Amino acid sequence: MTFLDKEYREIITKAVCGKGRKFTQDSHSISPSHRPSSILGCWVINHLYNAKKKSEDTVEINGSYDINVWYSYNDNTKTEVVTERVTYSDIIPLSIKDEKSINNEYDVIAKVIQQPNCLECKIASKGNKVTIEIEREFIVQIIGDTKVYVRVNPNWEKADEDDDEAWDFEMTEDEAKDVKPDFFHKKD
């Protein structure tokens, strides 16, 4: 059997040609304007990112987010929020790859599985800085052109689309004996 046989057709279509997933934990250090007494809260907002194919085996995601730390100072008598914009670059290896893609033109789809999130926020040992542990997770898909081979039934006869008789919708005797004509009028 060869794929150039008249019983087979080649269909060129867009398909997922590669997949990858990566979980990342980062540590950031922020220097507030006052020496913190305690951490009152930490949150991550304004996450932006874009993805591009880096090599045959990887996708690069470049992004940024804002870290906001609410802290007290002056022996817990005053509070302030410090905000810092953080940028990152994640290289995601493709764990699944289709080696038979037709060309090198790809679309990259990146989806966030875990938005950047604060795992831990604490005052650093020297007391002047705040250390924040952040987690994030992405999955990526590479969409490209590939070939699909489909077997064609050589005995198929083209039926006229308007010809209802070409489709066998007649009820068989076995199906007819199971029909209960008075099921609507039956009272329980």
Which terms would index this structure?
Spore coat protein E; Spore_coat_CotE; single chain; mainly beta; capsid protein; 188 residues; virion; six-stranded antiparallel sheet
SS element count, helices: 1
Helix content: under 10%
> How would you describe the shape?
elongated
Question: Ends: how far apart?
Answer: 62 Å
What fraction strand?
over 45%
The main pleated sheet reads as:
6 strands, antiparallel
Taken together, the total number of domains comes to: 1
Rg, Cα atoms, Å: 31 Å
By DSSP, the count of extended strands is: 6
Q: Order of strands across the biggest sheet?
A: 2-3-4-1-6-5
Mean pLDDT: 85
Class from secondary-structure proportions: mainly beta
What is the H/E order?
Answer: EEEEEEH
Taking pLDDT < 50 over at least 5 consecutive residues as the criterion, the unreliable ranges are none
Protein name: Spore coat protein E
Pfam family, one: CotE
Keywords: Capsid protein, Virion
Organism: Oceanobacillus polygoni
